[in-house]
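Operator note (shift B, R.M.): manual run for Cytochrome bc1 complex Rieske iron-sulfur subunit requested after the automated queue skipped it. Running by hand, logging everything below so the morning shift can see what happened. Input copied straight from the record, untouched. If output looks odd, do not overwrite the archive copy; leave it for review.
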Amino acid sequence: MGEHGHGDPHESGAVITAGDGESGKYAIDNPGLPPHRPRVADEDPKAAKRSERQVATLFLISIIGTVIFFIGYFAVELSEDLHALRLQNTLLGLGVGFAMLGLGLGVVHWAKTLMPDHELVEARKPLRTEEHRQEAEQIIDEVLDESGIKRRPLIRNTLIGAAVLAPLPFILTLRDLDRSEDFGMDRMRHSLWEEGVRLVRDPTGTPIRAADITVGSAMHVIPENLREVSGHADRLSEKAKSVVLVVRMNPDEIQQVTPGREDWTHDGIIACSKVCTHVGCPVALYERHTHHLLCPCHQSTFDAAQEFKVVFGPAGRPLPQLPIAVDEEGFLIARSDFTEPVGPTYWERGSTDPEGDYNA
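Run finished. Output pasted below as returned.
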């Protein structure tokens, strides 16, 4: 403590203060804004014009990228040829990339080289009165004037073109998720599975003998008649609805059997849709000791021993079960299609379901 008694750092001299009065509590007074350093484009009209052309060029690259996307989307016809699919994917990817990159770099380069870069400090005011509203309009007009968008028509026009065209690839991609007119719950209720259709391995198409499936194993299967679907896009659409996971456990480990489903399994072999009932991710992880199936997207967990009941996660209903049997040659076959729609629980699903197998 010594001669400075109370140990107050301000009284002991340990803290150096500057200024008088209220500002004396701080070691360094507010130095204010640093002096503005003009850029080359601020002082050289030729440099400013060069920067303007560079910004316009970047916007044109964005426009060209959108055109490349359209070429890949409309001009490349999909077929069984993988080269065409790869070409289309390349054009779509490059097109979207250049469209977004050109637009983003153009705006950044414009801001760094041509827009005013003076630092300003302005107190915030509540915009309540008509006078304040007019002041806000004046500020907006000043911003537009300072940005140079009014006196630089080359930048303005290329920016408008790039900004209008750049979102179109995303709009077309979202629209192309499903082109059919009958999309809805009824469509998702039906898949390629029907009575007598064999379960085959995905992707080899090899039929599966029940005797070859060991206890604790799981395999991904598709309907044998998938190969009969013509058209690459249609085949992918049907496969997305029809993919199934088959697991085998000891028959006495199956804890729950709903009345009417007693013949849906065979000697501990049970099958379900792979499409998660949350948002449609593929359920592909099987833990043999707990008989749990895990969706890797949001960790929804289903119990195969309890007819794929949800035991954890955001999924709202069990995975639809596929009724299966064995034909005369010992191969696994479907007894019927799924008795409920596969995939996520949409808002259309509710108590009006005629079979009453599920709730929203």
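Quick read of the result: The two ends are 74 Å apart (CA to CA). Residues 40-114+152-175 form one domain.
Leaving this for review. - R.M.
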